[in-house]
Write a structure and sequence with these properties.
The structure holds 2 protein chains of 2 kinds. Chain A is of the alpha/beta class. Chain A contains 14 helices and 12 strands. Chain A has one domain (2-36, 55-129, 208-344): Rossmann fold (3-Layer(aba) Sandwich). An 8-stranded mixed beta sheet of chain A has the order 6-7-8-3-9-10-12-11, with helices on both faces. By secondary structure, chain B is of the alpha/beta class. The longest helix of chain B has 18 residues, at 173-190. The chains are: A alpha/beta, B alpha/beta.
Chain lengths: 349, 238
């Protein structure tokens, strides 16, 4: 099923002439973790039973185009951050990858990220083709050097041809609205929002066409969340592509052009943001929106399934069957394309 | 009534984080506390949960003025005020199973194991933890599942007041809604008072009966802990 879906998507990408070619195309990507060392598994056979393999990402396909802010949303523990780490080659050694993730390079041949060797990822991809805005900017910076020194270092490493790295660092600071005096401060002297700006400026140091933001707003208060995501939206307006990974639906609502909803390691719905928020097709999307304080504030009953023991078929309907108001479940977890939207198991009739 | 009057508190001499703040939480009432990052919300939470001695001012629990804080606070007062912190991972012993995390305050208060196990089972059911999850350790569960355990732990001694310091900031929408419902059910069932600290105004609008605001520099916001009309939610029992 997933093969069918992927080829559909590829055809779709070629057919739509008006849209820019995707900068990042992910096809049937899966990530599995094997738990424990073999020896430990024998000794602790009882504890290892049933938790041998974590299915963190299963058959994920999407395309990211210039100008898009694609928000990847879902409950904590659904595999969002693993997906981000996989794209940057930052997974631990016990991860096994399947599928393809092709990143366009304006200056050369496309890079296939999942199979790329470390020198390619370090030398061409990280910072240069994909900028990462990390989850906790304060812990991402070294505490013993000033923000400016670290930003200049990033510029030197990523753009060795630039004659005046300090001037470029200041230009980057201006671009993200970072006051000049903040560059002379140590990270602990800066507020959470300011440190977040330093992190965004560093992500932009190599002028990457794709920006990957992994929970960039955790722990920030609402005005700072709004400022941070607005900044990401500006990057998309400048022709970059932004993948915003977040559990904050309000933030996603504010800036996303497209939304992908992830549940239990799979994407269950991808749609233009406006359509998804006004008319969700998958019951999980709908119930996630209902859980917001300005919605019905109703929690989703039950727990998400363990990623070590995922049910086959539609994982959500095992947790919460027959939600009224949604198309009946076909129990097929592959994404089905309807118009410019994709949905799993619950295509509208 | 859990009340704090004229609280001046801080961590470094000469730099108070809170400067003359008043706060009152009546039984059966959910008081929201909002304010920008760094305004002293968490410090106030630590003061009213008896975890931080204020430099000046008075904290009283149901009329008893608190004179000793932290470990020196008498157990009878400490168990009257429960607290849930923002980061569940930093507030549990990583060697404990979730069952032990929830049972700890009961055993510390002298409950026997059978009674404690019964109470833990009942609490786990309320916060939505299964027996299988209870047997795991913190690194084996998600933030949301761990925060459920932390809320169960705070509710275990049946506190008269509950302080929720950014309890839901790390959580997704569904877990947030679930935990806030558990707190509101506790208010309805026991008439407890709640101090709900959050920077999410839309959350406080549905959670709290009234919202106080802390301005910058630890001073009460305009109007000195201004009051908004209580939301009609039917939890007011006092």
């Amino acid at each position: 099923m997933s093969d069918q879906t992927v080829s559909d998507q590829t055809v779709h990408d070629q057919a739509v002439g008006g849209q820019a070619a995707p900068l990042l195309t992910v096809e049937a990507m899966s990530v599995r973790f094997t738990l424990g060392r073999p020896a430990a598994r024998r000794v602790f056979a009882r504890r290892a039973a049933g938790r041998g393999e974590v299915h963190a990402v299963t058959d994920v396909s999407f395309a990211l185009r210039p100008g898009q802010v694609l928000a990847l949303v879902g409950e904590s523990g659904c595999g969002k951050s693993v997906l981000a780490s996989a794209l940057l080659g930052l997974l631990p050694a016990n991860a096994r990858l399947r599928g393809r993730a092709v990143l366009a390079d304006p200056a050369g041949a496309p890079v296939e990220l999942l199979g790329a060797p470390e020198p390619v990822l370090a030398g061409r991809v990280r910072g240069r083709l994909v900028g990462l805005v990390p989850q906790s900017a304060a812990t991402h910076l070294t505490p013993v050097r000033t923000a400016g020194a670290q930003l200049v270092e990033a510029v030197r490493a990523l753009r060795p041809a630039v004659a005046e790295p300090r001037a470029l660092a200041e230009a980057l600071a201006d671009r993200v609205g970072l006051p000049r005096q903040a560059l002379d401060s140590y990270p602990h002297e800066l507020s959470g929002g300011t440190v977040q700006r330093v992190a965004v400026a560093m992500a932009l140091a190599g002028d990457p066409p794709v920006v990957l933001a992994d929970e960039p707003t955790t722990g920030l208060d609402r005005p700072l969340v709004d400022r941070t995501v607005d900044m990401l939206a500006e990057l998309a307006d400048q022709g970059r592509a932004v993948l915003l990974i977040t559990h904050d639906l309000a933030a996603a609502k504010r800036v996303a052009t497209h939304v992908a909803v992830m549940y239990a390691s799979r994407l269950v719905e991808i749609a233009p943001a406006g359509q998804l928020f006004t008319e969700p097709w998958h019951p999980y999307t709908g119930m996630l929106l209902d859980a917001l304080p300005d919605g019905a504030f109703t929690p989703i009953p039950g727990h998400p399934p363990e990623l070590t023991a995922l049910p086959s078929g539609c994982a959500f309907c095992r947790r919460c069957p027959d939600v009224p108001g949604y198309a009946p479940c076909t129990d097929d977890p592959g994404l089905i394309r309807v118009g410019d939207r994709w949905v799993a198991a619950h295509p509208p009739c | 009534m859990l009340s704090a009057t004229g609280i001046v508190a801080g961590y470094r001499r000469g730099r108070p984080v809170l400067d003359g703040v008043d706060l009152g939480v009546a039984p059966g009432e959910v008081v929201g506390l909002a304010g920008p990052s760094g305004c002293g919300k968490s410090t106030l939470a630590r003061v009213v949960s008896l975890l931080h001695r204020p430099w000046a001012g008075r904290v009283s629990v149901d009329g008893t003025v608190v004179t000793r804080f932290r470990h020196a606070a008498p157990a009878s007062l400490r168990t009257r005020v429960g607290v849930v912190f923002q980061q569940p991972r930093l507030s549990v012993d990583p060697r404990f199973t979730l069952r032990a995390v929830v049972a700890e305050p009961l055993l510390a208060a002298g409950a026997d194991r059978a009674t404690a196990a019964e109470t833990v089972a009942e609490l786990a059911d309320r916060v939505g933890l299964t027996g299988e999850l209870l047997s795991r350790r913190p690194h084996e569960v998600s933030d949301g599942q761990l925060q459920r355990a932390c809320l169960a732990r705070a509710l275990a001694p049946r506190p008269g007041y509950l302080v929720c310091d950014e309890m839901t900031a790390m959580l997704d929408a569904s877990t947030t809604a679930a935990l806030v419902r558990v707190v509101l059910d506790h208010v309805r069932d026991t008439g407890a008072g709640v101090l709900a600290i959050s920077h999410d105004e839309s959350l406080l609008a549905v959670w709290a009966d009234r919202v106080s605001r802390l301005g910058g520099a630890g001073r009460p916001g305009a109007g000195g802990g201004q009051q908004e009309p209580p939301m009609t939610r039917g939890t007011q029992s006092a």
